[in-house]
Amino acid sequence: MVKGVRYTDHRDAGNPATVTRAHNAQDADELLLLDIDAAREGRGPDVLAIAKVAEECAMPLTVGGGIRDLATAAACIGTGADKLIVTSAALDRPRLIGELARVFGSQAVVVGIDVGGAAGSWYVYDHRLRRPAEMAVAEWIKRAPEEGAGEIRLMAVDREGSRGGFDLDLLALAQSLVQVPIVLEGGGGSLEHCDAALHAGADGIALGTMLVFSDYNLVKLSRYLASRGHRMRA
Amino acid sequence: MGSAVRIVDYGAGNLASVKRAVWRAGGEAEIAATPDALADADRIILPGVGAAGTAATRLREQGWSDALDEHVRRRGKPMLGVCLGLQLLAERLHEFGEHQGLGWIPGDVEAMPASADVRVPHMGWNEVTVAPDVRALFGTSSVSPIYYFCHSFRLVGAPDDIVVARTDHGGDIIAAVRTETVFATQFHPEKSQVEGERLLAAFLAWKP
């Protein structure tokens, strides 16, 4: 497993199954496992790695990377994934979202949207080509649920690994466009950042760097968020 | 427990997760790839990740609905339905068109209304109100245990006497039903960590 900054500069973050066991023991609400090289290398999901993670996972498991048709999606679900994330494959062929939703249900289909830039200059980022995609950010956010997505994973690429805080403007834009849950990612670096994102109405926040490479952990975070008035599981 | 648990494989369930969760709860489950494999089952789990229409068609075409009828309703084997496995028990399913469910419980499955405050799908952890007299069925000592939900559709119109738990997400949601030897939950016990494990352990010991 690696953790990077802006999809590059990856540091080894340990064995996925071991990291999962640690998060599981700390009552993580959900685990997001992304194979960031699959799409770029044009290969399918690493089913063996997913199986090992699923083994340790008594919580919802969302899997992405290399899912480009029903067969690759079925392989992930069959191995223990509860939800699927499609990012670049959906950008190439938005109808894929509906094809997956009709078989696995909308609730299992998450569309990942990587957004580069900042408010006013946002663009959809294609991490395979490392350049902006043609689709406009607002158009893509709005279209994903229309195609059948049950959730949007909104990633502020320029903040990934930076620990500089979540992009709350981007969250507000998405909230104004769609009624499906939005999970915000990119930039979470402190307890206050997490509080601010939840306060702004994010349905979920995804943390990587903050949990893997710092002395924050989920127990500490849950306690803090509960003290700030957010409803947490005990 | 010594009881043989069989998980119905109708093509779109999260079978691996369910199997592992049963194991964590102290049981042994095997995946039933064909309806014949239910013959030696003591207990049956009907899991559920998938679209209702596709699932209902598969249940009928692959012979599952007849086999479930035989083993659960006629022979009285305990069955646990999970998420879609609850919805499939209803009479009618309104998802990508109208489909016929198994019709074991009265009611319809329909899309949950979304609004600016209420996001759909209902995804994440939510408190469930469990009636005191059925707490043992959930294996919990809590009046409002928290379970993981992940669904866009809900059961409506089921009679009060079979509804054993409710939750709230922009309105009332039926969280669990029980009738005869069938117990079914809208949430996912296999993904609900400790509370989920308790529920599964209670199901393994359930003598309806």
Report on the structure:
The complex is a heterodimer of chains A (234) and B (208). By secondary structure, chain A is α/β, with parallel strands linked by helices. In chain A, 39% of the residues lie in helices and 21% in strands. Chain A has helices at residues 16-25, 38-41, 47-55, 70-79, 88-92, 95-104, 137-147, 168-177, 191-199, 209-212, 218-227; strands at 2-5, 8-12, 31-34, 61-64, 83-86, 109-116, 123-126, 131-132, 151-156, 182-185, 204-206. In chain A, a hairpin with a 2-residue loop joins strand 1 (2-5) and strand 2 (8-12). Chain A is globular, with a radius of gyration of 16 Å. The two termini of chain A are 29 Å apart. Chain B contains 6 helices and 14 strands. With 208 residues, chain B is an alpha/beta fold. Chain B has an 8-stranded mixed β-sheet. Chains A and B meet through helix 3, helix 4 and helix 6 of A and helix 1, helix 2, strand 8, strand 10 and helix 6 of B.
Radius of gyration of chain B: 16 Å
Low-confidence stretches of chain B: none
Strand content of chain A: 15-25%
Helix-strand makeup class of chain B: alpha/beta
Task: Report strand order across the widest sheet of chain B.
Answer: 2-1-3-4-14-13-12-9
* Gross geometry of chain B: globular
The largest inter-chain interface, given as chain pair and residues per side, is: A-B, 38 and 39 residues
